[in-house]
Design a protein that fits this description.
The protein is mainly beta and 338 residues long. The protein has three helices and 24 strands. The chain is 11% helix and 39% strand. The chain starts with a strand and ends with a strand.
């Protein structure tokens, strides 16, 4: 999010948005439109880590004086809602701008030329009013290692919102330590995908509780080299209950699998379907075939793929709990040839 008086705006300085598309490239900037911008000046945008609450300064929206601080929230339709003035005594008849919030969303820092200052624009701090606070966020951290040697690895990782398929984080783990850190809104389920050249990609999903803040959610990522016998569970492939119909949330994971196959054109994979009940052998086979058919439809040669249903064999956890049964219901890929 940035400010520009370029052509295509609503007046003077407007707030624009550009999305990082990878490979050092950014998307064409988009004006946030008349629900945020006015014919006057909008300045100093700050997007909180919840990715849904935007703070900025404006002398175009109704305020107390020169330039006030406002906030706007992203609606369910993805559009920014009409801004609200953060109110007095933060805003005064002078100029207030450049708001910055801590990750918890309870404390703010801003600049003002209020008469109580030392002169010019001074920095102040205050407690964010309840109504103006962002969504609660927490954070995850992890470490990427070679599964056999335990050596830390630098690898690309992406975190997606499972419900929407949106990529929220795309970055690399640390070159020396293999560690990574990301801030995310709480109360949602996320998918994790980690990939590195020469390795089988890694898939996982996790949910963040509203109670998690002081302690991060830990993610350990053991990457396996591409070799015959290596296998992983595709944790972000979902089916309708008791059915082999894929849910829309599975498309991100399947796209990543297609990319892996195209980047490693000699790899031959087996797709294995597993369930939590021995009576579901047919269902597990049909689920594996559904994934097989999807990959073939996206251009993967059939001779590079095999599929098989394994029913309840080789459980990873006990079926005594719902969480255990959920983990046993999985789709796996195993390298048969390279």
């Amino acid at each position: 999010y940035f400010v520009s008086d370029r052509k295509g705006g609503l007046g003077s300085y407007d707030i624009w948005q550009s999305t990082y598309a990878g490979d050092g490239k950014w998307s064409t900037p988009v004006n946030l439109g008349p629900t945020v911008n006015t014919p006057y000046e909008e300045m100093s945008p700050f997007i909180h880590s919840d990715n849904q609450t935007l703070y900025f300064s404006s002398d175009g929206w109704p305020g107390f004086g020169n330039r006030d601080i406002f906030y706007s929230r992203k609606g369910k339709d993805g559009r920014w809602q009409e801004p609200e003035n953060i109110g007095y005594p933060i805003n005064t008849y002078k100029e207030e701008s450049s708001l910055f919030l801590n990750t918890e969303g309870k404390k703010g820092y801003f600049a003002s030329n209020n008469l109580e200052g030392m002169g010019g624009m001074d920095i102040y701090t205050f407690e964010i009013p309840e109504k103006a606070r962002p969504r609660f966020v927490t954070y995850v951290k992890g470490i990427v290692k070679d599964k056999l040697s335990a050596q830390p690895l630098q690898a690309n990782f992406e975190i997606i919102d499972v419900a929407t398929g949106d990529t929220l984080v795309s970055s690399n783990s640390n070159l020396a330590t293999g560690q990574f850190l990301a801030t995310l809104p709480a109360g949602k389920t996320y998918g994790l995908n980690v990939n590195k050249e020469g390795y089988l990609f890694y898939s996982d999903n996790f949910s963040l509780s509203y109670k998690q803040y002081k302690e991060p959610f830990q993610l350990d990522v053991p990457l396996q080299r591409i070799q015959v016998g290596s296998k992983i569970a595709l944790r972000n492939i979902f089916f309708e209950t008791g059915s082999f119909k894929l849910k829309n949330e599975s498309k991100y994971e399947l796209t990543k699998l297609v990319q892996f196959m195209k980047s490693n054109p000699t790899v031959i994979l087996e797709i294995g379907g597993r369930t939590d009940d021995k009576t579901n052998m047919t269902l597990s086979n049909n689920r594996a075939k559904t994934v097989y058919d999807y990959l073939v439809k996206l251009g993967i040669a059939p001779e590079r793929l095999k599929y098989k249903g394994y029913g309840e064999t080789s459980p990873v956890e006990s079926n005594a709990t719902e969480n255990g049964r959920a983990n046993n219901r999985r789709t796996e890929v195993k390298i048969l040839g390279n």
